[in-house]
Amino acid sequence: MTTDDREVLLIIDVQNDFCPGGALAVPEGDAIVPAINRLAHSFAHVILTQDWHPPGHTSFASSHPGKHPFDTTEVSYGAQILWPDHCVQGTSGAAFHPKLDVPHAELVLRKGFRKSIDSYSAFCENDRRTATGLAGYLRERGFRRITLCGLATDFCVAFSAIDGRGAGFEVAVVTSACRGIDNNGSLDRALRSMVDAGVRVHAE
C-alpha cells in the first residue's frame, strides 16, 4: 500500500444505477469493481463520489415534456444532455455497488443534489461556477496527486480529471478500472481532452 500522504485515489460513482440492470447502465460497469477494489487497497487515502439527485432533477428527460433520454436541451447554464431518472436520493439505484469493498474511504462526496444543476465533475457543477469544495479539501489535507477510476470514463471521470488538473493537481486515470458510455463518440473525445489537459491516462 502506498503510504504517500500527498496521493489520493478518487473513485467516481460506482453506483447501482450505472451498472448493468440500473437506470443508466454503463456497459460492463460492474466488471471494473474487482479492479477498483484491488487498486483501492494499494492506496492509504481514498475518496468516493456519489451521484445524488433529488426527484425531478433538471437532467432527467422526464422533467422536460416531449423530451427523451439522450436528447439535448437548453437550461440556465447552457446545453444539457437529458438522462433517464437515475441515482435518486435514498433509492437502491443511488447506492454503491454491493461488491465495492473500500472500508477505508475517508470521504464520500455527493454531487448533483441541487435540483436545477447537473454535476459531472467532482470539483465543479455543470454551471462551471458552483464548486463542490473538493479542491479545498484536498489542499487542506496536503494532497498533490490524484488517481481516478470509476464510471463513466467519458463523463464524470473525464470532467473530474480535467478539473483536477485545472485546480493544479497532478492527475492520472487508470482506464482498466473505468468504463464509458460512449454516446456518439464521447469516449474518444474524452480521452483526447484528458490527454490535452495534461492528465496521465494509462491502463494499469
List key phrases describing it:
204 residues, six-stranded parallel sheet, alpha/beta, single chain, 22% strand, Rossmann fold, 4 helices
Summarize the structure.
By secondary structure, this protein is α/β, with parallel strands linked by helices.
Structure description:
This protein is globular. It is built from four helices and eight strands. Helix 3 packs parallel to helix 4. The mean pLDDT is 96. It is an alpha/beta fold.
* Overall SS class: alpha/beta
Q: Sheet bearing the most strands, described?
A: 6 strands, parallel
CATH fold type: Rossmann fold
Rough shape? globular
* CATH class descriptor: Alpha Beta
| Mean pLDDT metric | 96
**Strand elements, count:** 8
Trace the largest sheet across and list its strands: 5-2-1-6-7-8
Classify the beta-strand content into a percent band. 15-25%
CATH superfamily: Isochorismatase-like
Which percent range fits the helix content?
A: 10-25%
Number of domains: 1
Question: What is the correct CATH architecture?
Answer: 3-Layer(aba) Sandwich
- Low-pLDDT parts are none
Counted by DSSP, the helix tally is: 4
Q: What is the string of helix and strand elements?
A: EHEEEEHEHEHE
Report how far the terminal alpha carbons are from each other: 15 Å
Radius of gyration: 16 Å
